[in-house]
């Protein structure tokens, strides 16, 4: 539980870092977006006034600025995600010490766990003593293989 | 050149972020476990900049003892610093060792960041393509190491076993339930009946983050038995080559022990004196796996290692012989 709290805390920290980056960038993007929309509005007005060339140029600038600001926003989000350091999920395997029982249970790691530690919680099957026999992380993504 | 500079810049930003996270994790862990009365941030910053000057090697005779002494002083000094930063656990060796390991991982991240930044600024100042180029070329490996230390930091802070603990995990499995006594510095040994032989199973004392001084411990056990040891088997985590599988078990000869070489030197001296053969069994993993929480494949390799050790003992020794089995590595999260 404590470990879970710490993991959540870490994720929150990473999230706040992301937020810090995106707040600053969002401000720039919003300014550029506002300017782009203004350019599009002026382009529409100019078009109605009959100056098609000026309207086309203004519309082009508006669309380009809009596309660039959206692009910048996505890029910054991707970079922030790359910097995030994730804590892997670590599991604790406990086994009943009674030879005939062999009951195994797996749970998330808690601070204070260590391999060969006898734990107070009795075995759910026979009520015998339980011991931590393994602590490990499972790597989900498969390593890329090369046929050489 | 611009592209390369941009690439180095991006990596440097990432390294800075990882380093800052490391520092923050170390301080938070210290506050949570050590309950310091004052803010430990300033002391942690000082700790992160600690350095060790190796002995002079112009006349290399006796350098191993000098290096051993320097490392002992370093270890003691760093432990004392941790004790001052964590008054609530100053008598709890397990927590002190874990905190020391956490700070050492943060120290490694700080050092990597500073070195990369140094070459980046130097390259920009001198506008040297070659400095930037060399930095850009080794960056993938540097980033991999930084990521590894970042995961290590979390593992040390929580006291989780790491990949380097493959040796102690096997030794713990063999010695669990037998009488244990302390031997050498921060090591434990148990006399275990093993395939009709007597095995002295040795490892660093756990579950705190600790590698002990297996060299000293092995020499002591050999001397106690007046050199009448049929063989020494060392189990350690070994760096795998790309293409090899994590958790693969391999066998060879020689002192399977890393570090600055002091322990390997002491072991080899004693083995040569008594003409004791030395066998090694290693569990393959890469640098990232070695310092981050133990992967399932490495944990599962423990049984395969025991089978290999059994085979070596049965093939290379006679019934009634005495053998030494050593689990080399960091005992964090692994008891006995």
Secondary structure layout plus pairing:
The complex is a heterodimer of chains A (148) and B (336).
Chain A: H1 2-49, H2 52-83, E1 90-96, E2 104-108, E3 118-119, E4 130-137
Antiparallel strand pairs in A: 1-2, 1-4, 3-4
Helix pairs in contact in A: 1-2
Chain B: H1 2-34, H2 41-48, H3 63-85, H4 93-126, H5 129-158, H6 166-175, E1 180-183, E2 187-194, E3 197-204, H7 214-224, E4 231-239, E5 249-253, H8 262-274, E6 278-285, H9 287-291, H10 296-316, E7 322-327
Parallel strand pairs in B: 3-7, 4-6, 4-7
Antiparallel strand pairs in B: 1-2, 2-3, 5-6
Helix pairs in contact in B: 1-4, 1-5, 3-4, 4-5, 6-10, 7-8
Overview of this protein structure:
The complex is a heterodimer of chains A (148) and B (336). Chain A is built from 2 helices and 4 strands. Chain A is of the alpha+beta class. Chain A folds into 2 domains: 82 residues; 48 residues. Chain A has a 4-stranded antiparallel sheet with strand order 2-1-4-3, with no helix packed on it. The N terminus of chain A is likely disordered. Chain B is of the alpha/beta class and 336 residues long. Chain B has 2 domains: 157 residues, no CATH class; 165 residues, Peptidyl-tRNA hydrolase (Rossmann fold). Helices cover 56% and strands 14% of the residues of chain B. Chain B has 10 helices and 7 strands. Chain B has a 7-stranded mixed sheet. In chain B, strand 1 and strand 2 form a beta hairpin. In chain B, helix 1 runs parallel beside helix 5. Chains A and B meet through helix 1, helix 2 and strand 4 of A and helix 1, helix 5 and helix 10 of B.
């Amino acid at each position: 539980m404590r470990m879970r709290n710490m993991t959540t805390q870490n994720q929150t920290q990473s999230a706040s870092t992301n937020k810090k980056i995106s707040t600053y960038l969002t401000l720039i993007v919003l300014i550029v977006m506002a300017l782009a929309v203004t350019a599009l509005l002026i382009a529409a007005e100019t078009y109605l006034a009959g100056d098609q060339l000026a309207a086309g140029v203004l519309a082009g600038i508006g669309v380009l600025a809009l596309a660039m600001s959206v692009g910048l926003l996505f890029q910054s989000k991707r970079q922030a995600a790359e910097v995030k350091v994730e804590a892997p999920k670590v599991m604790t395997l406990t086994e009943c010490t009674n030879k005939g029982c062999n009951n195994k249970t797996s749970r998330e790691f808690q601070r204070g766990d260590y391999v060969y530690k006898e734990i107070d919680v009795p075995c759910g099957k026979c009520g015998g003593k339980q011991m931590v026999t393994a602590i490990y992380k499972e790597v989900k993504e498969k390593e890329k293989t090369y046929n050489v | 050149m611009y592209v390369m500079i941009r690439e180095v810049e991006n990596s440097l930003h990432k390294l800075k972020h990882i380093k800052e996270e490391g520092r923050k994790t170390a301080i938070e862990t210290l506050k949570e476990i050590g309950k310091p009365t004052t803010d430990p941030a300033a002391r942690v910053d000082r700790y992160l900049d600690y350095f060790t000057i190796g002995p002079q090697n112009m006349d290399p005779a006796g350098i191993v003892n000098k290096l051993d002494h320097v490392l002992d002083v370093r270890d003691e000094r760093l432990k004392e610093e941790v004790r001052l930063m964590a008054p609530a656990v100053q008598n709890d060796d397990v927590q002190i060792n874990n905190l020391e390991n956490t700070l050492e991982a943060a120290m490694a991240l700080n050092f990597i960041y500073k070195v990369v930044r140094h070459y980046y600024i130097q390259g920009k100042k001198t506008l040297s393509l070659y400095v930037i180029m060399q930095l850009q070329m080794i960056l993938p490996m540097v980033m991999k190491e930084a990521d590894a230390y970042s995961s290590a930091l979390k593992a040390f802070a929580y006291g989780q076993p790491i990949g380097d603990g493959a040796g102690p995990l096997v030794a713990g499995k063999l010695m669990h339930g037998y009488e244990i006594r302390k031997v050498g510095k921060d090591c434990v040994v148990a006399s275990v009946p093993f395939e009709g032989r007597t095995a002295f199973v040795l490892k660093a004392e756990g579950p705190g983050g600790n590698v002990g001084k297996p060299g000293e411990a092995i020499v002591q056990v050999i001397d106690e038995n007046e050199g009448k040891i049929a063989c020494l088997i060392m189990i350690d985590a070994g760096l795998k080559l790309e293409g090899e599988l994590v958790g693969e078990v391999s066998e060879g000869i020689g002192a399977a022990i890393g570090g600055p070489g002091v322990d390997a030197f002491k072991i080899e001296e004693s083995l040569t004196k008594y003409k004791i053969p030395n066998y090694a069994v290693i569990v393959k993993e890469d640098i990232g796996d070695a310092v981050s929480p133990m992967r399932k494949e490495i944990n599962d390799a423990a049984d395969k290692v025991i089978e290999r050790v059994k085979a070596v003992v049965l093939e290379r020794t006679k019934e009634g012989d005495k053998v030494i089995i050593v689990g080399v590595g960091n005992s964090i999260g692994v008891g006995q």
